[in-house]
Here is the input.
Amino acid sequence: MLIASALVLFASGAAPAGPAFDWSLSPEKIDSSCKAELARAREKVKAALVKASLPEVGSPVERLVAVETAVAEAEEALTVHGMLGSAESAKVRAAADGCWNLRTAFQVELHADPALFQTATAALAAARSPVDRALALRYVEAGRHGGAALDPKARAELTALLDQIHGLESEFVRALNDDKPAVEVSPEEAASLPASFARTLKKSRRGFLVPVGLDTWELVMKNLRPTGARERFARAFFLIGGPANVERMTRVLALRRKAAQRMGFQSWAEYRLELTSAKTPERALTPARELAAVLLPRAREEIASLAAMKAAAGEPGPFAIWDYSFYQAQKEQTAFAVDPEQVRQYFPVDVVVPAALELFEQLLGLRFEPVKPASAWAPTVTQYALKDAATGALLGYCYLDLQPHEGKMTRPSSATFRVGRALPGGGRVLPLSAVVGNGPSAAKGERPLFTHQGVYELLHELGHLVDAMLSAAPYSSLSGVFTRPDFVEAPSQLMEEWAWDPATLRRLSRHVRTGEPLPAELAARLAGLRRANVGAFWTRQAFLTTYDLELNGPAEVTDPTALYFELWAKMTALPPMAGTIPEASLLPEMGGYDATYYGYLWSRIRAADMLSEFKRAGLTSPQVGLRYRRAVLEPGSTAEPEELIQSFLGRPTRPDAFYESLGLRAAGR
Here is the structure.
């Protein structure tokens, strides 16, 4: 709705009509067509692999490409089914989730197929081109990890375990999306919230209901008074998912452990990390340990300073986790003269979104052209044709779905519904990607406003989107979205960096009433906040990395809550919140980042190093941006991350820029 009002800013000629999809699929049709497409894919894969016993009929590479094509065609036929996972209808979302589970089971089945593993192994030995070798290697790795080399009984047991794991993970994620608690606040407490946010609240018998979620956490916890009200909100937040999700996680941990041991690994972490840049849990954990050692004393100083502010304010009780955001915001106002609510007035959604797209256009040589009417799953979704600015070539279609509604992820996330690939006879299947999530809400007749955090989250997700859209890999399996887990966040974390640049902040802003950009002095002070809580932020990241690897480590974990609070007390400066179950809403652990959460830190180190190249030439240098696009984004997963970075930087990656961004001289010092 509000994004659409800004589309005229990008009307540079008529964009080609987007792909025509049937968005009226019933839940029954979603289920039946999903099963039919997967059955068709199975037949095609079987036909390709039958030739494995007839070496004179096609080379191993040709047979593997036939399998790759069959799988890609099935995924493309199910594009709508994936997109409808964000539909407003709960029944449609449930059917789309069911299809997703069937697709995941199909992938598990493929990776366990001995004939496919045999074909991939032969293709790896026979492949002459680097791209074909990369494709074969991915299938060999997937087969090895999927149990294709096991005896039939062991393979069947592993497949059953993996199916159970994926099913429970899917239930966990859906429970998070469906659990939308709210806390009641009095009229006096509601008055402490930003007026534009307070006007969106529903009335209750004794006051108002405040929705509890990631999308409301920042606004509420930075403003809500008194401390007792913040405690109610925080406790509700850290109970999201409920005991059922703790039970699901506990069951998954046991299943993962059993599956890893079935494959000959000591732990799920070892099993997962074999296919990463880090290779081992010990190496993955090293940067987090270094940061924790250096920054925990600083984190304690930061928290002590905030605790003193609470005592001086006369609020009762010791400093607690629910006080952190509130007093951090107070500190930002006093020490940096940055008022989060004042800043928010400069970031209307209908200004930030087109300005962010324009930034990406300049940096990467692109054009985002609006498609009207949009072919999308909801009337509030906006669609763009992504083109190369120099040639006008159509690169794909992308969507922004930021309108809040029940059942969606609370914060924006990027999803690739159709992966780009080359067609065997020439031409290319164009990718379809989207940024989906509950954007900021607003009262009727008002414009929704991003917080500064919301701005850099948007840039982060757009970084994921262009990573998916600009991959020029010939095979779907080698798209950039399928890179190593400890590099997948690097392109998005790189683009997030522009949210800390004063000039870019001014470029992305226009005051909701006056239309003036963010004042230069305020933009500079806002950018200075980056180091305001370095200790608390990065010790929490080190904690999450450690918790993830220990959950999935060799020691059996039967009580993830107890482990959470044990490590929290050792590794962070914030007091724990007894009586809560934070792991019940720990999406990365059950949403695909299990045993690889460390990748956020590894990716950040690489992103900071790549940013140094932009800084040398000027952050908005289109020449450097185009080099980055050609060297890192377009190759996708046809090369390993270190090769991509070296191609862009002209040298191996190093951590210096990351540590300098934290005010540290070097790793571990």
